[in-house]
Amino acid sequence: MADAPARPEPLDHIAAGSGPGLVLIHGTGADANSNWGPLIDVLRDRYTVVAPNLPGAGATPVDPAPIDLDSLADRIVATARTAGLERFHLVGHSLGAALATAVAARHPEAVTSLALHAGWVRTTPREAVMFDLWTHLLRTDPALLARHLVLTAMGPDLLDTLDEGGFADLTAGFTAMLDERILGQIDLDTRIDLREAVGRITAPTLVLACADDRIIPPHHQRQLAAAIRQAAYLEVPGGHGLPFEDPARFFSLITAYVDERQAQART
Question: Which residues are catalytic?
Answer without folding.
Answer: 94, 213, 240
